[in-house]
Amino acid sequence: MQPKILIVDDLEQNLLATAQLLDDFDAEILLVRTGQEALLHLMKHEFAVVLIDVYMPDMDGFEILRLMSSVRKTRNTPIIFLSAICRDEQHLFEGYDLGAVDYLIKPLQPSILRSKVRVFLDLYLHKELIREKEAQLRLFHTLMEQSEDEILIFDSQSGELVDSNRMARQRMEQAQTSESQHHNPLHMTNCHILCPHEQSWSGLLNDIEQQGYLLVENRYPNSEGHYRYTEAKLQIAIVDQRKFLLIMVRDITRRKELEFHLQQQEESARRANLAKSLFLANMSHEIRTPMNAIIGLSDLLAETTLDETQRRYLHVLHRAGEGLLTLINDILDLSKIEAGHLALEQIPFDLSLLVEQSLEIFHHLAMKKGLVLRTEWLIEQSSVQRLGDPARLRQILLNLLGNAIKFSSSGTITLRIQPAMHHPNDGWLRFEVEDHGIGIAPQRQAAIFQPFVQENSGTTHSYGGTGLGLTICHRIITQMGGSIGLDSQPDQGSTFFFEIPLTAVVSHPTPVPQADAAAPVSTITTAAPSLHILLVDDNEDNLFLLQAYLQQDRYQLTLATSGQEAIEHFRTNPFDIVLMDVQMPGMDGLTATRMMRDMERQQQRSVSVPIVALTAYALKEDERRSIDAGCNGHLIKPIRKSVLLEAVESFTATAVRPLH
């Protein structure tokens, strides 16, 4: 704030002359000509110094000073008398007795006046600075006292406590009544209590200066038998080139309790998630095992001679089994996505071929319902491959195409492939599946990608399905980094669309080796060698089914209904391949596989027999466990006949079989 100077004189020329002498000072100068006017200004403002003419007609300088001395606000204001007449020393002393700080005789010496006024301006500014510091100190102490943290200030050289707040004093008083000083986190003679390790006072200060500050957590038993947790922050504060150690101790007991409860909840959630995964794995196994027999035997039955009624019954049975298997797969897929276990591949694939194969699957069903399936390419349809996960992309397309066919009774279903709207030049593609079916009401569209949601409750009964397909598509696309949406009107149809990154990659065709013109071409064909297969399964129905699958003269089967029995056969007989059930009582299939691999190493066999796991466990980690145990392959029940035969031929064709 700019200081103020008040000049009081009844002659205007004196006012102006005095003001001119002080004009270059950084101060606000007020000029008045009467004592009454001077008193009004003195009550309104605070002045660094007041220059008063002694002799004035209405009220002389002495009267003004007497009135100022009687008022608290103006009692200590510095007054300098200005007078052209000094009657005697007694008159001069009267001015000093009233409280004047100086008495200057006119005509004024400019240098003397300026030096005296400057002194009082400097004193005023210094006083203002002191008042500001005092206000800051009062504010600091107020905040410090009101703080719920314990605050202590120590002299860094002596280690003596300089100041503390209310909470710290209360804690120290409580500590004095405790049996042990270690209950007092502020006891500085044991400074290691505040430090990560025991050290000297100087060592503590050095650590703080090097690190900037220290955070130390401590735990203390309270009178109730529980623990009190504190967090002390130690840092150096420098005030007027003097170092202090500032310690702020916060009670974090509540935070620790919340962290403990959160850890318990996380552990409980982890155990619940583990239990859910185990439950799903077990349910998958328990359902897939009988499904293996149902679907497998229905496939074998379809190969026999049946009349029309029997074939219709078989078709219903087969469709029901396929529907149940789809439900199981959807639930497992959703479980894997929610658990974060869904791994996406990034491999080159032929997009045109994938789209063609996806449409081909629904060709017969679309024709049966009188629907037209068409593809609309709005990008160049070339041999350029795309980088992504073809299996998951196929799963998404099959789900959207299947829904379009399911909810349409006439018209055309169009699969449209075009550049993505938001990423047109970044390798992103937009897929659209458009139909003219029942459509979806606007109020239902926001929830259509939630689990177990369909357009309305009657949709499930009329069209079937669980409502999981779109949820799985949404989660897969999101994990790919893309997005999915729809445009739909009731009774007019729907268009489901999604955009995902599928970067184009240049593929180099593998050259086909040319036959040597001079080499004779052999036309001799040989019969496929016979295969000795060890078939291991504790379930009688599964053994019966697998035997039926392998009813060929070239397959010689040895059956085992337990892991131990399989080990005995493996020890005494040479096999070309082992088909190993994983889940068996007693010794399971993976344990038996490990023992077989150990046996091969101990006997130094020159050939490692292919072992293929047959299991109803369908999670990715189940396949990893099979491979880690020593299996060469992992087939998930229910197993199609064609899949099993292809696996047998594939694994035995690449293996070097010993001579029997």
Description:
The protein is of the alpha/beta class and 660 residues long. Helices cover 44% and strands 21% of the residues. It has 20 helices and 23 strands. The strands form 5 sheets. The chain has a 5-stranded parallel sheet, with helices on both faces. A 5-stranded antiparallel sheet has the order 7-6-10-9-8, with helices on both faces. It has a 5-stranded mixed sheet with strand order 12-14-15-17-16. Strand 16 and strand 17 (493-501) form a beta hairpin. The model is unreliable at 179-198, 455-464, 510-526 and 656-660 (pLDDT under 50).
The share of residues in helices is: 40-55%
| Sheet of most strands | 5 strands, parallel
Instruction: Report strand order across the widest sheet.
Output: 2-1-3-4-5
Taking the alpha carbons of the first and last residues, their distance comes to: 110 Å
Give the total of beta strands: 23
Question: Can you tag this structure with a few keywords?
Answer:
660 residues, alpha/beta, five-stranded parallel beta sheet, five-stranded antiparallel beta sheet, 21% strand, disordered C terminus
Structure described in brief:
The protein is of the alpha/beta class. It has 20 helices and 23 strands. The strands form five sheets. The chain has a five-stranded parallel sheet with strand order 2-1-3-4-5, sandwiched between helices. A five-stranded antiparallel sheet has the order 7-6-10-9-8, sandwiched between helices.
Secondary structure blueprint with pairings:
Blueprint: E1 4-8, H1 12-21, E2 28-32, H2 35-44, E3 49-53, H3 61-69, E4 79-83, H4 89-98, E5 102-105, H5 110-146, E6 150-155, E7 161-164, H6 166-176, H7 201-211, E8 214-221, E9 227-239, E10 242-251, H8 253-302, H9 308-338, E11 347-349, H10 351-361, H11 363-368, E12 372-377, E13 385-388, H12 390-406, E14 412-419, E15 428-434, H13 442-445, H14 457-463, H15 469-479, E16 483-489, E17 493-501, E18 503-505, E19 531-536, H16 540-549, E20 555-560, H17 563-572, E21 577-581, H18 589-602, E22 611-615, H19 620-629, E23 633-636, H20 641-653
Parallel strand pairs: 1-2, 1-3, 3-4, 4-5, 12-14, 19-20, 19-21, 21-22, 22-23
Antiparallel strand pairs: 6-7, 6-10, 8-9, 9-10, 11-13, 13-18, 14-15, 15-17, 16-17
Helix pairs in contact: 2-3, 8-9, 8-16, 9-15, 10-12, 12-15, 17-18
